[in-house]
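My main concern about presentation is that the manuscript never shows what a single data entry looks like. An entry of this sort, consisting of the sequence and the corresponding backbone structure tokens, reads as follows:
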Amino acid sequence: MAAPAEAADSRHLSLKSPTSIRAASVGAPPANLPPCPRPDPVAGYTDWYSLCNFPSFTVCPTCLRAASEAGYGRYFEPNFSMSPERRLQCTFSIPWIRMAYLLMVKKRKANANLLYDMADVADRTPPCPGNRPTVREWHRISDLDSDRNISGFYACSYCVGSLETIFPVLEGVFHKSKRHHAGEERSCSLRWDSSRFATYVDSLEKVASQAQEYRRAPNPYQFLELLKSMGPIRSCSRDDMVRGQVWHIIPQLPEFTACAECYEDVIWPAVARGSDLASRFTRKPKVIGVPHAAVSCQLYSTRMREMFREACETQGYEYLRKMALKRHKIERDLQNRIVEAQRYPRAQREKAMAEIVEQWQEWE
């Protein structure tokens, strides 16, 4: 079967994109990396290349051309060992790899040693779990004032290893969790699909630059202050009506409220893929309507997340608006019925509540 035609999918053109953050766009000469057309695992291709001696470092023809134009083509070879049925991702779509490559180009390195070092990190550490809670050996960072770990910040070995490979001066800033914390189920705070990734890396790059400039040990004070000011992401309250919480919204559609966790898990990855619709959500959450009005998250359910995906990919804003307003109205109507049902005798109240729950499950 012929491989699908390769084209630059507009959904993957920005982070807003990993290549646009200051740490990655390091003032590179013209041989900059184009948007990778294969950022997600895909089958059907037989034209993959690999970094020599690292067959798992797979590269698409588009990214290979850019590397060849920069003078690094000799470090790659065709990969004939990969079956076309196997789903593969172009390694150059990974922000850590793009940052390392662009740093090589900026410094006009005569060899690809940094890419080999990055490939070695990937070979000896498990891949980043992203936003999936996982039991892992986590890396932490200590507050300089209290010597306690910063609450809510956990980084996986792959991301820390990649960071330290790109900025060797930062080695030792993060430390492995103590034994009794090593088995905690967490998600990675340095994952690249996080809305905070660019901010974190930008701050850490400044720490590294200052350490190199003044020839001293890195002082992560500013990064620590950033972590403390941003704080951990609050867990989604789902359909609980809560007061005094801030929400991400599209200003023209304030009824469609998304909590910080759902923004991080659903909306921001769509922004990173270049979705114009997802980009319309406010980056900074805000109070909606009356300050003490009770509001719930609208994006926690599988149904609404699928609807949001369809709106971003094909259906557009009007579809999102129509579905969001309909769900919001039904939610409010059912909330009013719950209040009314509290006045009923016990048997009638239980029957009414069962009917409300059943109807809500259809719209949740």
The first helix runs from residue 61 to 69.
